[in-house]
Amino acid sequence: MPRLGGAGQRPQKKLSLTLLLIGLVTLVVLLTSTILLTASYHSKKKSLIETTLNLNQANADRMSRTMDSLFRSMRSSMAYSADKLSRLDVLPSGEVDDYLELMRKSSTYFNSILLVGADGIVRNTSPATLGMEGKPIKSPWALEALGLKSPYLSEPYTAVSTGRMIIFMSEPVYAPDKHYLGQLGGTIYLQDNNILNMIFGNTDDIDASGSYYYIVSSSGHLLFHPDKERINEDVSGNEVVRELMKGNSGQREALNLRGVQLLAGYSSVQANGWGIVVVSPVSFIQKELWSQIRTTLAYTLIPFAVLLLLAVLLAHQLAQPFVMLADLMSRVGKGKAELPELKPHWNREADLLTKAVTIAWSNIQKHTDQLTQAAMTDILTGLANRRSLELTMNQWIAAQFSFSVIVLDVDKFKFVNDTYGHLAGDEVLKQVAGILKMSIRPGDVCCRYGGEEFVVLLPRTKPSDAYTVAERIRKTLEASEVPLAVKVTSSQGIAHYPSHGNTLEELLQQADRAMYSAKGRGRNRTVIADE
Predict the structure, then answer these.
(1) Nearest-angstrom CA–CA distance, 286 and 298
(2) pLDDT-based confidence at 300, cuts 50/70/90?
(3) Ramachandran assignment for 523, one of left (phi > 0), alpha (psi -120 to 50 degrees), beta (any other)
(4) Beta carbons of 188 and 196 less than 8 angstroms apart
């Protein structure tokens, strides 16, 4: 019997368009979900990190201002009391004791106060239980203050007898005749009851995010910290603490000495050289991000499932070119996209649509390029415009690419416009542009900055070489023929990056000043900035 199909082969099974579209829609849904989650993750992470850093720095700045104000108040109180004791030689000892006791109890600035004579003997103390009256002072910090005869603030140190961390602040006492009487000193026990400890000693509070603060001395030792065992530990190896030891304030993401990644805001205290650091663990940010992802998935799962079901129901009404076109247009909306290679389609309608898309895309790309070029070009002269100049300069500065800037201004251009008309003025500007184009090398940039002002950018060019180029332009312009009864000349200023400035504004300002200097010296000349 003859076999059906001629050669006896079964017909090749074709891929169902409906199945193809269902697969494509499913893939698009999955990719879109991944992209959205990834974008959301990174955007939220950046936002959380920036917010946390800004908040930590704001808190550190606030605490720094508070501590600075507190120490200035302590110093002011000490200076006031030292002035009150200027008649120390004639004041009864009991009256001095009462004054020191009142001074200590009224402000809670100091845990103890002592009055030391110029001979180094302790005259009065508060509280009296110190038992130091009549004895020579032995503390090296008090002896140093006594010898300096000026206001003094010691580095935090550990008392040998008690093991407590102490700060010693003193003020010289002078008699009305300027005779040196001694020092009025106050001690602050960092971990004891005083106003400093009441304000800053509550470091035990670690909030729900794991954030906390600590305070370091100017030598990099911990003064206040949630872990009391670490008090007086040398943490100068911490990169944030090193910044504080330099007197800097700011914010950064950094590793602490125990390898924990933290978001730190830090601020130095001017009055005593200390530093305050507010930190938050990065691990808490990660927990927040994963929580957000889980929440996003929970909210988007049902809508995506419904969307997929609708896509299945409507798949037989769709065709691949439409999906391709939608995908292409979505990428165009996010930035410049290249047209992929479009091969002939087996379906006649799809093939016609593919060809139409190719033609439309070429036209769109052509018009886009034309608009881009027009947006970056000065219509009158054909040179680059101000926007193009600023874009180029910012790119070169960001890449730390050395270059020179020539600012050229046509001399007495207003006179040309007023005398011969704006059309003549336009011809002068075109002639200047033509000379600039002929005078520069490949890779140099010249533009019309505005009005009669032009700017030339010379990459990797020293000011002296830029001066040579500028002079060639100036002489060529001066010698050029114009259909006017006047000579066209120019005044030019030169600036160099980074010698004369580190920003676009600074460079243009320096070059502009040099150009006006050229005008002030008689016009038709070139001046380099700072010369």
Answers:
(1) 18
(2) confident
(3) left
(4) yes
| 298-323 burial code (b ≥16 CB/10 A, e <16) | eeeeeeeeeebeebeeebeebbbbee
- Say which residue the tokens 């910290």 belong to: 225
Transcribe 315-332 into DSSP letters: GGG--HHHHHHHHHHHHH
Angle formed by the axes of helices 282-314 and 17-84, nearest 10°: 160
**Phi, psi torsion values for 174, nearest 5 degrees:** -120, 145
Long-range residue pairs from 332-336, CB within 8 A, at least 24 positions apart, any chain: 336/368
Does the predicted model carry a pTM greater than 0.70? no
pLDDT reported for residue 312? 64
- State phi, psi for 171 to the nearest 5 degrees: -140, 135
pLDDT digits (tens, 9 = 90+) for 122-156: 998 989 888 888 899 988 888 999 999 999 998 99
- SS3 of 62-131: the string is HHHHHHHHHHHHHHHHHHHHHHHHHHCCCCCHHHHHHHHHHHHHHHCCCCEEEEEECCCEEEEEECHHHC
The whole-angstrom separation of Cα 344 and Cα 342 is 7
> 462-501: per-residue pLDDT in tens?
999 999 999 999 899 888 887 776 788 899 999 999 999 8
Q: Assess contact for 415 and 350: CB atoms under 8 A.
A: no
Residue 2, pLDDT > 50, answer no
Q: Is-contact 266 244, C-beta < 8 A?
A: yes
* Distance in angstroms between the alpha carbons of the first and the last residue of the chain: 107
How long is the chain?
A: 531
Residues 6+ apart with CB under 8 A from 293: 37, 40, 41
